């Protein structure tokens, strides 16, 4: 999570623990407080989604209200819904209700799946030799550029008219995960194996896998999320209300994925340009009769 003044943000992760004392120390000199982007998307050994997305958000909102901070921007998630079958979406929805009940002027931001440097979308797809899923990669969403999210947050921090508003921030085009995976394959000039397993099997394997490693890879709730398409709240504001035109993911795959190519193909042009060059090699005859 990030916090600080309007012009200088600091990471709360620099503080050893999220105690009341540490919150007081970091919030007190601030005019603006902003929670982190999808701080917890899966459960870890030392905390669960309820701890972070609900109780953690509640404690932060209470500290913000206690010191009468000017602005509070809460990063939630797309599909935040207290009635969702996904624990992540469910706790994100409850977290929104909690912070608004404590600090009504809270600005809530719901970003779509994000692509950019060190993201968990393009880089995850490009970096794995075997892709394990349960829904044949049919989950649909509007991927959004991290730079656009940053621009939107900077605008909100300077414009007090965005207080007490909810924003759905998403890209211009809807994709399935399979379509994005195919786009990644074309860009890195590799074909990765896709293995689809029944949900119950993959959820169990995820639980066993997480017992063996300490870092986050997958969890049962991520399998559940594969079956939930992104839904846009028609009442929420969007990039358009901020005067921002979101970027299209297809225009940035080369920029972010070139390093995944082998040395033999590293300097080849982007997939779209390469396809155009191939197109020019052939003579197309159109028969109107």
What do these coordinates show?
The protein contains eleven helices and twelve strands. With 289 residues, the chain is an alpha/beta fold. The longest helix is centred in the N-terminal third of the chain and has 18 residues. The protein is globular.
Residue stretches low in confidence (pLDDT < 50, at least 5 long) are 1-18
Rg, rounded, reads 21 Å
Q: Helix share of residues?
A: 25-40%
For the largest beta-sheet, the strand count, sense and barrel status come to: 6 strands, mixed
Layout: helices, strands, pairs:
Elements: E1 2-4, E2 9-11, H1 20-27, E3 32-34, H2 49-66, E4 71-75, H3 87-102, E5 107-111, E6 114-115, H4 122-127, E7 130-133, E8 140-141, E9 144-145, H5 146-158, E10 166-169, E11 175-176, H6 177-188, E12 193-196, H7 199-212, H8 220-225, H9 239-242, H10 253-257, H11 271-279
Parallel strand pairs: 3-4, 4-5, 5-10, 6-9, 7-12
Antiparallel strand pairs: 1-2, 1-3, 8-11
Helix pairs in contact: 1-2, 2-3
């Amino acid at each position: 999570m990030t916090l600080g003044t309007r012009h200088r943000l600091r990471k709360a992760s620099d503080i050893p623990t999220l105690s009341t004392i540490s919150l007081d120390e970091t919030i007190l000199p601030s005019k603006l407080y902003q929670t982190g982007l999808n701080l917890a998307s899966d459960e870890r050994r030392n905390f669960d989604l309820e701890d972070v997305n609900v109780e953690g958000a509640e404690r932060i909102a209470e500290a913000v209200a206690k010191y009468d901070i000017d602005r509070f921007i809460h990063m939630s998630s797309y599909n935040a819904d207290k009635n969702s079958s996904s624990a992540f979406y469910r706790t994100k929805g409850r977290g929104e209700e909690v912070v608004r009940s404590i600090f009504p002027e809270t600005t809530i931001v719901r970003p779509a799946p994000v692509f950019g440097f060190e993201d968990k979308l393009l880089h995850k797809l490009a970096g794995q030799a075997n892709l394990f899923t349960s829904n044949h990669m049919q989950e649909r969403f509007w991927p959004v550029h991290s730079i656009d999210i940053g621009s939107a947050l900077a605008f909100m921090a300077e414009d007090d008219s965005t207080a007490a508003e909810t924003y759905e921030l998403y890209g211009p085009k809807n994709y399935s995960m399979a379509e994005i995976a195919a786009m990644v394959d074309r860009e890195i000039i590799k074909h990765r194996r896709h293995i689809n397993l029944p949900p119950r099997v993959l959820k169990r394997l995820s639980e066993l896998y997480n017992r063996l490693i300490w870092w986050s890879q997958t969890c049962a709730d991520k399998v559940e999320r594969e079956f939930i398409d992104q839904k846009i709240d028609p009442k929420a504001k969007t990039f358009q209300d901020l005067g921002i035109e979101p970027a299209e993911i297809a225009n940035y795959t080369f920029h972010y994925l070139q390093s995944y190519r082998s040395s033999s193909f590293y300097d080849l042009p982007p997939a779209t340009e390469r396809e155009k060059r191939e197109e020019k090699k052939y003579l197309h005859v159109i028969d109107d009769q």
